[in-house]
Amino acid sequence: MPICLQKRVPSARHQRPPKAYFAAGKLALSICLLGIVSASVLARSQDTPAASAADNGPQPPATSSSQVPSTTLPKPASITGTVVDKDGDVVANASIILTQPDTLPRESRSGGDGSFLFVNVAPGPFEIAVNSPGFGLQTQSGVLQSGEDYVAPPVQLVVATTIEVEVNGNPAVVAEQQIHVEEKQRVLGVIPNFYVSYVPDAAPLNTRQKFQLGWKSTMDPFSFGIAAFIAGVEQADNEFSGYGQGGQGYAKRFGASYADLVSGTFIGSAILPSLFKQDPRYFYKGTGSRKSRFFYAVASAVICKGDNGRWQPNYSNMLGSLAAGGISNLYYPASDRNGVGLTFENALIGIGGSAASAVVQEFFLRKITPHSRDPQSGQN
Questions:
Q1: Residue 211 confidence (pLDDT)
Q2: Of these four, 101, 104, 232, 367, which has the most CB atoms within 10 Å of its CB?
Q3: How far, in Å, are 273, 307, 313 from residue 217 at the CA level?
């Protein structure tokens, strides 16, 4: 039996007005959409926990691996400086050794202008040690920053208080450097004070150096000045009257005074010291009681240090004074020669003058002599 579709027409009491159907449909659609949204939110909250955390508050932005800053590598640094002596003169060919923790030492040499340079130096603490023959070791330290061009303060070398001579070294070179310092010693910056050593273990002088020191002393302008002063005093007192007065008399007195100085210096400080192998210099003591220093200074007129470093009778000074006194008889007026008596008188005056000069050296002159050094501290 076939099925027949029939349109059922509701009765009048079951019909709704059109507005009622529209409102009911809208309400049903809203409920349906609300259910769909709620199910979707619930599903996302279960599948992505991070989303729930994001809802609870702001999170820091994610950073890609390409944006992570890399560690900055330290840049190599450099060290420059200059090597000078006590007088500010540059010291060439000095040895400069650079040391740093966990690295091998590096060595450089100062140039003709005294400068040195180290490049590609690792940042961090460092120390430089500077040395040159005849000078004491000097050190400086510091800390290098990355990429820094470090300029070291001038490294000032001073003459070593104890001279260490290598087996293959040349003592004459050390002595030459010490003479260079001694030739700058002047009392009050004016009066030559070349024949005193403030280095107790100074290297011995060879023959050439002994004559060099004598020439330097006698040709100094002050030597001419002191001879002129003595001649003026003698002329005013009419000493050695045989010379007469006036310009001619003064010239003779000046010549005699200067001849005394030259003969006494070269005979007693160059010729005889070379023959007897003795050192003509006074070696400053500077330590001990005043009494011991006084007798040490007085004794230096008759006792001296030999080139072998041992103390011995000062034949050079005693015989030098005697020889100079004998030579003076050749140019003093005949009325003032008095033969052998004047010779020994002048010799004793020379020896006494040496003793008095040593006492003055020991107690007074060092403090007013520029470029002198205290043997204990190595300072002026």
A1: 94
A2: 232
A3: 16, 21, 24
**pLDDT tens digits, residue range 37-79?**
444 434 444 444 443 444 444 555 544 444 545 557 888 999 9
The answer to whether residues 254 and 227 touch, using CB atoms and an 8 Å cutoff, is: yes
Tell me the sheet residues that pair with 159: 135
Question: Are 159 and 132 spatial neighbours (Cβ–Cβ below 8 Å)?
Answer: no
Q: Where are the domains of the chain?
A: 77-156, 171-368
Q: CB atoms < 10 A from the CB of 85, how many? A: 21
Closest CA to 279 of 328, 343, 207, 347: 207
Overall size of the chain counted in residues? 380
| Residue in 204, 189, 206 with CA at minimum distance from that of residue 372 | 189
Longest dimension (CA), the chain: 191
Distances (CA, A) of 158 to 28, 132, 172, 348, 362: 108, 10, 18, 39, 22
Instruction: Using alpha carbons, select from 273, 309, 315, 299 the residue that is nearest to residue 199.
Output: 309
**Span 77-156 CATH architecture:** Sandwich (2.60)
Q: Which backbone phi and psi does 301 adopt, to 5 degrees?
A: -70, -25
Residue 372 is predicted with a pLDDT of: 60
Euclidean distance between CA atoms 136 and 196, whole angstroms:
20
- Degrees, nearest 5: CA angle 313-282-290: 95
The beta-strand segments (E) located in 214-309 are: 282-283, 303-305
Distance between CA atoms of residues 125 and 326, nearest Å = 68
